Amino acid sequence: MNTLSISQIFSNLSFYKENYLAILSDPKQYQISVDEAFIEVWPFKKESLCLGDLLQLWFAQKWLAKAPIDYQFELFLNVNVEDDKRNPEKDLYVYAITGNILTGRNETCAWSIKNNQTETLQIDNVLQNYCTFKACQYPTKPHKTQLKAIGSAH
Q1: What is the DSSP string of 82-93?
Q2: Range 61-70 burial, b when 16+ CB lie within 10 A, else e
Q3: What is the pLDDT of residues 105-136, one digit of tens each?
Q4: How far is residue 12's CA from residue 48's CA, in Å, rounded to a whole number?
Q5: Is pLDDT at 44 greater than 90 in this prediction?
Q6: How confident is the model at residue 73 (pLDDT cuts 50, 70, 90)?
Q7: How far apart are the C-alpha atoms of 60 and 15, rounded to whole Å?
Q8: Which residue in 13, 10, 55 sits closest to 30, CA to CA?
Q9: Which of these, 101, 121, 123, 102, lies nearest to 110 by C-alpha position?
Q10: Contacts of 55 (CB under 8 A, 6+ apart)
Q11: Which residue among 21, 36, 73, 98 sits deepest, i.e. has the most Cβ atoms within 10 Å of its Cβ?
Q12: Helical H segments across 87-141, by residue range
């Protein structure tokens, strides 16, 4: 089984957007490992994230971090500016979370499309991120009885 890096995913992001549903429905593609992609929230165990998890979380806009606000006079006046300046949160795709529910010490690594690199950010509600991850839909394998019925028709 191949292992992807975050930079590889983002260098081919258009491919993953186009093939998103096919990847989510195929257990082999869904389970492709991704280096340095995980969620570790105390008191829960650390869990690795795979390609399918990340695509679900990103494309459903559940794990997009908000960039620190860069106050600019043009934005205040609502002058025509580039979309990425108006919506900076669409630039940061979270792929690793470390946190503690009790202490509130939470940190995330997110890939910045604008800067083409990883950025480390502080996050507030790590439990919400954990629950969102646990709610991901995994591909289901066909039941053996269905396979026999299909195979017996030939």
Answers
A1: -HHHH-GGGGEE
A2: eebbbebeee
A3: 899 999 999 999 999 999 888 999 999 999 99
A4: 21
A5: yes
A6: low
A7: 17
A8: 55
A9: 121
A10: 16, 20, 23, 24
A11: 98
A12: 126-134
CB 109 within 8 A of CB 36: yes
Residues 6+ apart with CB under 8 A from 1: 28, 31, 32, 33
Token pair 């106050």: residue: 71
The one-letter code for the residue type at 110 is A
Q: Domain segments of the chain: what residues? A: 3-152
Question: Inter-axis angle of helices 126-134 and 51-59, to 10 degrees?
Answer: 120
Residue 77 confidence (pLDDT):
59
Enclosing H/E stretch for 74: helix 73-76
Which pairing describes strands 107-112 and 64-65: parallel, antiparallel, or unpaired?
unpaired
